[in-house]
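Can't paste images in this forum, so I'm doing it all in text. The chain is below; anyone willing to post the predicted structure tokens underneath?
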Amino acid sequence: MERSGRLGVATLLLAVLALLAIARSTIIMVYLGVTYFREVDPISVPLSYYAFVDGGEQLFFSAAVALAVGALAVLVGMARSGVRMAGRPTVLLAVWATCLVLAAVFPADDSPRILTFGGWVHQFAGAGILALLSFAGLAAAARLAEYPEWRPVVSTVRTLSIAAAVLAVAYVVSRLDDVVPGIFGPVDVGGVLQRMVLAFDVAVVAALAVQLVRVSWHALRRRGVPAPAAPTPPTALPGH
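Text version of the structure:
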């Protein structure tokens, strides 16, 4: 009852904000992929190279910031709903959101080698984006398993987080082609692997946001139902 009491309109609004931010980010990324298909090959070229095409930089920045806002809104909403998020889940998810913004603010160097400070910041932020959300999802799933209303989403979050981790490892392995050109054949699949990792990351955040909507909505409905009236004590019969 104490957790239900803390749930309210603000928590539901945070969940809706997260879903809208995630949708905005996804739509922008799909738009970039379709519009600049010829300029940025989605199979081999990383997402960050949309910043180098005419009109792509602001859209890429907007998508990254929107996704970061969505992740933080989910984090705050889950904490307000009573989920024990302090510690690893909060730190990992917050750092992941920060890495999204840093990767957008500091573009990659448009060259085979990293030449600038901004390029190094982008490189480390990109590594954080690839790695941290999987660990955040697994850490959050362990906490969510403690709460009956959150258990329906636990297996989904774990599965998506593990899939993202596997794809991230595959992406890192694919980068060996930069050291030994042609080791994996003539086709570089690093770009599509990176996009798949991010897609699973987005799915983790979206799954948490959807469940936050459900939990918040059910709590609001319970709070709107009047408490049952106390039973009327039986009337004593005359002479008793």
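Helices lie at 2-6, 9-35, 56-80, 88-105, 117-144, 151-174, 176-179, 190-224. The radius of gyration is 23 Å.
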